[in-house]
């Protein structure tokens, strides 16, 4: 079981960022509210994969629990994956699903395996997405360490976005961190 980490990332609604403060190569990706999975599948047709790094029951970070309106110390499934294009990790994604969200048909979220979560979320006609929050993630933050642990050379900072999604009114949090070398090409129109 994973334990919470207190060195949280400082997430802010995207409206708090000047467009000039966001790397130009990433702004179209960070600010987009469409399915990142679908966009990556279009970018690398036939060469898109999900690599599951871990999926465990754990206690979310304090900021994750807060945005999900969870009581401190309550359990969630914490899923960490790489989204790969041409075999290269391009995005590190962390999903937090509170145990209270895993009821009825949403129990399937606990058994995704290497299937992309994004496909399931955006296929659900009742899905609601909260505001997109952004963060510049630097060394010393737990999310930075998790996202870059496979890299030989680590940049000074990386960028990510996160949103709370609601399925049948039940929340889950998806954080997506863009790794060095991303994008693998121009974002699709």
Number of helices: 5
Shape: globular
Sheet/helix structural class: alpha+beta
How much is the average pLDDT?
Answer: 89
What amount of the residues lies in strands? 25-35%
Whole-angstrom Rg: 16 Å
Q: Give me the strand/helix succession.
A: EHHEHEEHEEHEE
Low-confidence stretches: 184-189
**Number of beta strands:** 8
**Helical residue percent band:** 10-25%
Report on this structure.
This protein has 189 residues and is α+β, with helices and mostly antiparallel strands. The protein has helices spanning 24-30, 36-43, 62-67, 117-123, 142-148, and strands spanning 12-13, 48-58, 76-85, 88-98, 128-129, 133-138, 157-167, 170-178. Strands 1, 2, 3, 4, 5, 6, 7 and 8 form an 8-stranded antiparallel β-sheet that branches.
Give a concise summary.
This protein has 189 residues and is of the alpha+beta class. 19% of the residues lie in helices and 33% in strands.
Features:
single chain; 8-stranded antiparallel β-sheet; 19% helix; disordered C terminus
């Amino acid at each position: 079981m994973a334990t919470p980490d207190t060195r949280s990332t400082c997430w802010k609604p995207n409206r708090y960022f000047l467009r000039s403060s966001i790397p130009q190569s990433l702004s179209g990706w960070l600010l987009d509210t469409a399915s990142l999975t679908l966009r990556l599948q279009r970018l690398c047709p036939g060469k898109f994969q999900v690599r599951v790094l871990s999926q465990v029951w754990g206690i979310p970070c304090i900021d994750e629990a807060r945005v999900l309106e969870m009581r401190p110390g309550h359990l969630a499934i914490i899923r960490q994956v790489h989204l790969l294009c041409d075999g290269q990790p391009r995005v590190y994604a962390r999903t937090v699903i509170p145990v209270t969200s895993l009821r009825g048909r949403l129990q399937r979220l606990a058994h995704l395996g290497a299937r992309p979560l994004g496909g399931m979320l955006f296929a659900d006609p009742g899905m609601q997405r909260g505001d997109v929050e952004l963060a510049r993630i630097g060394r010393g933050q737990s999310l930075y360490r998790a996202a870059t642990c496979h890299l030989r050379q680590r940049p000074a900072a990386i960028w990510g976005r996160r949103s709370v999604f609601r399925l049948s009114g039940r929340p889950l949090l998806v954080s997506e961190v863009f790794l060095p070398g991303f994008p693998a090409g121009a974002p699709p129109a």
